[in-house]
Amino acid sequence: xxxxxxxxxxxxxxxxxxxxxxxxxxxxxxxxxxxxxxxxxxxxxxxxxxxxxxxxxxxxxxxxxxxxxxxxxxxxxxxxxxxxxxxxxxxxxxxxxxxxxxxxxxxxxxxxxxxxxxxxxxxxxxxxxxxxxxxxxxxxxxxxxxxxxxxxxxxxxxxxxxxxxxxxxxxxxxxxxxxxxxxxxxxxxxxxxxxxxxxxxxxxxxxxxxxxxxxxxxxxxxxxxxxxxxxxxxxxxxxxxxxxxxxxxxxxxxxxxxxxxxxxxxxxxxxxxxxxxxxxxxxxxxxxxxxxxxxxxxxxxxxxxxxxxxxxxxxxxxxxxxxxxxxxxxxxxxxxxxxxxxxxxxxxxxxxxxxxxxxxxxxxxxxxxxxxxxxxxxxxxxxxxxxxxxx
Length: 391
Ligand SMILES: *Cc1c(COP(=O)(O)O)cnc(C)c1O
Prior knowledge:
Elements: H1 6-9, H2 17-28, E1 34-35, H3 47-57, H4 72-86, H5 92-95, E2 96-99, H6 102-113, E3 119-124, H7 129-136, E4 140-145, H8 161-166, E5 167-172, H9 185-198, E6 201-205, H10 227-230, E7 231-236, E8 249-253, H11 255-266, H12 274-285, H13 289-312, E9 324-328, H14 335-346, E10 348-349, E11 351-352, E12 363-367, H15 372-386
Parallel strand pairs: 1-10, 3-4, 3-5, 5-6, 6-7
Antiparallel strand pairs: 2-8, 7-8, 9-12, 11-12
Pyridoxal-5'-phosphate is lined by residues 39, 101-103, 127, 173, 177, 205, 207, 236, 238-239, 244, 249.
């Protein structure tokens, strides 16, 4: 076997191996392990979406290769959703491309604009794919620390000028995984100015734009003036319509970036199964009460978790978006030792913050995507194990 290529051997090591081994050991001893670690909706895909997929499955025209950029009707559905949801008008043919889940496009975008040695600005903590895609393209991730005192927004003015000049892409993600932070239009306006100054492509990951509470409606990056000249937005049906297994998303916005991503992808994949595109269209264009129900469920769980954590001694504000809670570990623990102790002593799995970058140190993430009763049980076990925590 030849040596593994550098682009793969340079990928960061898999951090959860130790925790997964602990979980396996517990399960082998028949311990009932409850995972708060997985960011994957527990509810099924809504019935009307499944019904549309079942209907489209019967049509042999859908059994052949799809177009690599996505059906025109799918791209029209995405454009229509942008118009209704954000008042953003997109041209379906030139400003929208389908993706095999947004992760696929996020991983491939660096291949479009990054040469070996180029810099990509990557938020930390953040979704690991931004750095992973950068490394695979031979680029160098430059960390944008997301700190609680800045509302988990990067301080663009702190990026050294010589680094910004070498940078090609800035990744952003609001509402944010894992911190649940949100960004307003004013922040996006500053991002546009920064991208113009240094000739950067802004890649905004909007996976959680429709998972929000208490009347809050997260904005699209594409809403702000000039966004389309400097950036694209990644979207997905995965989280709002409980469709993580289906693999369908899109990139929308800057024409050149959309065209280049479509051109790259035409050399790699052959598009999204049309049945899946029809299902995604049913989600985007169909009745939205499923989304309201899903968000109401997450809100109930959020409030349950916030109340229980407060009783244990955490100071925690209910997040306005995403299905995550991002919390500091109690005194005397690191992110890893806390996660390990909870598995050992409570049979509860949380994600150590370091899985999302070095600025995740001292934090852990709880996901609300599990049945409410299981969440309640996990919180009770935490209370029994930890008692009152201090920091
Ligand atoms: C879940 C998630 C996605 C969506 O991934 P898909 O490939 O569309 O399923 C993208 N970004 C972040 C930050 C996520 O957490």
